[in-house]
Amino acid sequence: MRTNDDDLIPAWRRYLRLTRPNPAGDVDDELAFHIQSTVDELVAQGMSRDAARAAAQKKFGDVERISATLYNLSQQRERTMNRQELRETLKQDVVFGLRQLRKSPVFTLVAIVTLALGIGANSAIFSVVYSVLLHPLPYANGDRILTLSERIGVTQGYNAVTLGNFDTWRKEARSFDALGAEWGTGPRTLTGVGDPTPIYTMQRTSGFWKAEFIPPVLGRYFAESDEQLNAPHVVVLSTALWKNRFNGDPAIVGKTITLNSAPWTVIGIAPPDYIVFPPAEMIWIPLVLPPDRWNDHGDHELNVAGLVKAGVTPEQALRELTMIDTRLAKEYPNKGFDGTVLGQSPAEQLIGNQRRNLYTLLGAVALVLLIACGNVANLLLARGTVRRPEIAIRGALGASRRRIVGQLLIESLLLGIGGGILGLAVAAAGVKFLVRSPAGIPRLQDTTLNAPVLLFTLGLSIACALVFGLWPALRASRLDLQQTLRDGGRESAASVRDRARGALVVSELCLAQLLLVGAGLMIRSMLVVLSVPPGFATKNILMMNVQLPSARYANPAVREAAFTRIRESVAAVPGVRSAGFASMAPIHSRQFNCGAFREGSNGHDEGNWNANVRTADPGYFDVMGIPLLRGRAFTSADNAGSANVAIINRSLAVKLYGNADPIGRRVANCIGGSPEQPVWREIVGVVGDIHANGLSNDTPNEVYTPTPQFSQSQLTLVVRSNINAPSLLPSIRRAVAAIDPLLPLARVMTMEEAIGRSLALPRFNMWLLTLLGATGLILAVVGIYGVISYFVTQRTRELGVRMALGASTASVRWMIVRQGLVLGMLGVGLGSAVSYGTTRLMQNQVFGVTAHDPLTFVLVAAILVATAVAASYLPARRATRIDPLEALRG
Amino acid sequence: MTRTSIDLLQGTLDLIVLKALSWKPMHGFGLARWIQLTTDSVLQVEEGSLYPALYRMENRGWIKASWALTENGRRAKYYKLTATGRRQLVLETQSWDQLTGAIGKIMSTQSEPA
What we know:
Shape of chain A: globular
Oligomer: heterodimer
Radius of gyration of chain B: 16 Å
Strand order of the largest sheet of chain A: 4-5-10-7-9-8
CATH architecture of chain B: Orthogonal Bundle
Shape of chain B: elongated
């Protein structure tokens, strides 16, 4: 119930109080009155004035103490009232602001949608950045974990750790609570639950679980006893595998599953946090090797993680390892490590190369948001003009400038928060899109709109409201009351405002230019990459991995016979043109390489070239369409019993022999031998170069050997068809099953798919940047259109006069379009300068063009200027339709 | 000067002030005199209690102060009852009646405690 007089007074009148209340004065006055009244009474009873005063004082007691108490009480009251007043003011401003926004629904809608786009895009990208970069990895003692690698040489980068070096570290290093290693090994085929399925498999030492520890969902991880050569087979399953294949069986621990036809006992379930890349369905088995393998100091295979002892700094721990490794480098020279050990945090190691990429995207969305804010600021400036009379009247009625600015800012905040709420919907859609991207960014799949993202969005909304609201509010409130009221609300400072709004538009164009140049560079790179001739056929090529279980195919001769039969069976499928096997197909899987050297060189510094290593069968080159330049291809006569032969590619031939004919000469590499004990192979052919490591990488050197001369249990089947390759897959599966129904086919994909996947990340970046660039462009165009339209509206009278005096339509239109052109040129000029300085940061994300690619810069500039002109042409056309009479009368 | 012959119970002063102001707005001195007259000087309120009580009641929103001129032309701070204060008066009167009723019963009882 509100019957208090003050509550009925409009809030603004409270500001008319000329003086603030004076609690101290009030208390003194009140007590003085009381004493005075007592004195009067006593005097009336006949006491002398002096005696009465003394008596009154005495009766009253300690005036000081009482007035201090009263003063405190009234202070309290003042504070409560101020708080109430503030709340009340805020409430009124919000209600008033909402009413104002409802009164102009088009403005409100445009502003909120603009902000929603900007804020939503930012929240979406931020949620990815949070999930991938900022969200800590869930390991216990995460700050003490180091992932370790060995330096090859000062300028040559880093290698995985050798088996022998890791074994030496774990025996000698004292700075670690745990040192562990893991490597990826071929998939194991799971049978007995549904169809035979290859399951992604990692081999790990017990130390790795201890270093990167997250408590198991069920059971336990490996112990050292599981790493003995003849220890019983144990396996840890991922949570996804356990849930999907074993229905989350709570009694799974202790049960036996069948992997590659052998029984393995499940000892534990690892939590999903261990999966940073799909596939989520995987298994871990102990890293068990024969003792002599642990003495191999040249095989760089292991991912190594160490848990540094509490109280030991990472630097001390690395110094110890470097000391051990330096000694080993002297003992085993030329093994691909120079003694220096690199330690990174797991996050650094995992996402180091994603960081710049994601921050580029975050920068780009921030630019979009700035453009959006620019547009809303522009709308508010225009609105400030329309509202001049209202603001002037409020000012005249005594509202202070602070109060008016506050009110206008509240309106901006309402817009910002509205934009933020709608932006969350945009962000939700964006995250859905981003998570599905096949770009292979670790932990991308965990991205959600979580509490940090919501906080970020709220903060962003408020920050935006201040950015776009403060300047227009200050401008709107700084007006000459008399002038405005005298003008009857008509615009009187048009030129000043035009300059302000022009500056905003120029900044927007500048930002749009920066965005579009970024997008343009990505598009150009992609076009360059896609136009690279890969050196092999990409149409109608189907690839799949075929693994022969070692239990049933232990003998190399049996394996080769099986591969040959499979090849013949598949080649006989109608529609298949040819089929062949290789140890790995280009781009399809990660390539394997090591040093290749010619006979006569010392095998190390001279004549030793890093080259891809690949085995191939007689059909492979034909299937892949790799041209034979010299000599011959492999034949079925090149088998395990015949002379060792090799085929090299053109690049390697030139590097090893210059212009001399390589046919008949001998090379060696890591296959079957080493620089110390080379296994020489006679070169029988030279083939063309291929972009085996990805289209955006240079063509590597290649050494091919016949499959029987380096027998492996897993090969990649490549099939070339006359018709659409995927449609043949069922018949190909049947053809393989006809030879052995239990063989799983893994990584089945066409060459086009493989290339698509290899380019997924740059393509993902390209599309995102293009999308952001286009958004920025559209927003900037809307901004220009707004400013020019406003310009036309302001000059209606002037334009009418000009036309009445005989100015031609064309000249009037030109006068207006010129405004747009000038703004466009200014924006583009500024933008080009800014872009030139900024795109340097993108140098390692572009391919085949420089970050200052002139074509991109010129094209983007042309697009921006053209759209600026187009955006001003519409209002120009409208201007020339003005009826001069109407204009003059108006 | 005679001392207050009855120590006022906690909260009783509030009730007296609310009751007094329910007739008409008064200033602090007037209130003190009114209480004295009405109770035939049985109750004398000390200024050191009265004014803090008034300020506290004002903070609670029961009464409201404003400056006005007295009949003698002096500026004095007058207190008047607010709507909240009026409701409070009803509530406090009820609980006062209950309290005095209960004490009355105890004082007039004939049976000794068990």
